[in-house]
Amino acid sequence: MIKKVISALKFLFYTVLILTISVEVFSFAATKLNLLIINEEPNYYKSYGNKWRTENTEWGSWHKSNFKDRHTKKCFDVTYESNNLGARDDEDYNNNLPKNSILLIGDSFAEGYGVNLKQTFSKILENKTGRKVLNFGSAGHFGAVQQEILYRKLASKLPHNEIIYFFLPSNDFTDNDRRFWNSKLHKFRHRPYFKKINENNYDIFYPKNNQKKFFIAINDFIFNRLQIFLLKYTYTSNTLRSINALYSKFNKSKNIVVQDEKVGDSYFFNDEESINGTLFFSKKILSNASKLERRILIVIPTLKDLKNIENGKIYKDLKWYVKLKEISLKTNTKFFDLADHFNKNEYTKMIYKCDNHWSPKGHNFIADLIIKKFFNIY
After folding, report:
1. What are the phi and psi torsion angles at 106 (to 5°)?
2. pTM of the full predicted structure?
3. Which of 61, 144, 214, 234 lies in disulfide reach of 281, CB 3.0 to 4.6 Å?
4. Is the pLDDT confidence value at 307 over 50?
């Protein structure tokens, strides 16, 4: 019996080994012939900025505490660092912070994806205003539900008298809509979603199979260790990413909203369920900050949005925009739409060529714009 088990294990091992080598050889040849959708060379010296990321909190996407990580792409080479709470900063956050601190919350644009710490919006604002800025931004599909939990559970307990909330229509409406995260791979993400209770109320829920410890272990293996290894050392990653791109393109049944052209995207997004669920929690963030001296909501466009606007497309009468302005009015929040302050040509100079995030120039421009509008320094 033992001999049979050993033989079966040997057979399985060699089968997997041969299959792995075959896929790598195929991927190598296909990459060299430029046959795949993605044909990148492995780079043993590259770091993808994934090591400092984690999903072991109630709000999902976050950073490991007191951690440094490197992120390199064709157009940038930066270092990320986090403090005692996992926030992107080189100073610890505690109750000894100045009472007039400014709290920044949002996704990758607030975090400062692709730029060094001193080049982030938060540090530029901090240095130019002379006030401490607490950076509670996070990349990794970090939407309003997660932001509300983070603010309520952690950030709101720190000294601050002002909040700046970055809102990105490009993905904030879908980050916590379960319909957009229904593939088998996405089920291994630990994240909260919104759930409709009635016409006016939403609750937070985690999928039934979302057992925290299991998800943390699986996420660490799939999204960090294995992914980093494949990207760094193999051509197989090109094949896998190409298959994933084709799957996303043709598997329409997994996501009826994304595939519905009538819904649109970003500034022209118009799916009622996603909008209502997302803005319910956006309102909660601003309402929870009602005792602060000031709340500022900054809406961020994409380059595609600006092109559509210049081509005559209208978005200010769409439901999300009207409702977000109403929420701002009810919560006494300053509403600031960046699309009103630069065109597509100007914005092209503010983002990376290899990435749609703000470059150091973009962070500086936006910070100066906000300082001029709200801080009366210039």
Report:
1. 165, -165
2. 0.81
3. 144
4. yes
